[in-house]
Amino acid sequence: MIEEDGFLEEGLGFSEENEQTQLVYREYLVFKKAMEIFYVTRGIVDTIKEKEDKFDVRNFMLRNAGVLGSKIAAAEGGTLFHIRMECAYQIKIAAKELLINVRLCQMDNLTDKRYLELLKRLLDEFRLYFVEWTKTFDSEKDIDDGWKIGI
Fold first, then answer.
1. Which of 94, 77, 95, 84 is closest to 26 using CA atoms?
2. Is there a domain that residue 5 lies in?
3. Which of 20, 69, 85, 120 has the most beta carbons within 10 angstroms of its beta carbon?
4. Residue 127 vs residues 8, 30, 35: alpha-carbon distances, Å
5. C-alpha span between 37 and 26 (Å, rounded)
């Protein structure tokens, strides 16, 4: 029989004090750039003809662009280092996959190359803001989450 270890009672680092600052992330440059990327991506996707989208790149692009802002919000919803780092890792993967989606659009000539160049530039700017944002994570604010994967 598995022993109860209080995993669910530990929570994810959310607290009443965090509720007061939860919306502050919307003012962060990294979040604003993520939203800009989402809107530009949505515009690009609208220019791709469905019949030419053999690999469903439109849906992948929207999904990846949507992950950026949502995971920033999730990371800012709590203080636990490992949760914030998990969100950051998912953001990194989504941004890199979005770049792969851009390359596929270029190779298959799915949309105007100028739009794709704009998105690449925005992603590069986002990367710089992302690096600065992750430096604010406090590794001292963490608990053992019960999964036994250390950082």
1. 77
2. no
3. 69
4. 34, 8, 13
5. 14
Residues 6 or more apart in contact with residue 129 via CB below 8 angstroms: 28, 29, 30, 33
- Is residue 52 a contact partner of residue 141, using CB atoms and an 8 Å limit? no
pTM: 0.84
Residue 142 lies in a domain: no
Structure tokens at 17: 């004090």
Q: Specify the number of domains making up the chain.
A: 1
In this structure, what CATH number is given to the domain that contains residue 79?
1.20.1440.60
Dihedral sign from CA coordinates of 74, 4, 143, 13: positive
- Is residue 63 domain-resident? yes
3-state SS record for 10-79: HCCCCCHHHHHHHHHHHHCHHHHHHHHHHHHHHHHHHHCCHHHCCCCHHHHHHHHHHHHHHHHHHHHCCC
Which helix (H) or strand (E) is 92 found in, with range?
Answer: helix 81-107
Whether residue 119 is predicted with pLDDT greater than 90 in this model: the reply is yes
Q: Is the confidence at residue 95, as pLDDT, over 70?
A: yes
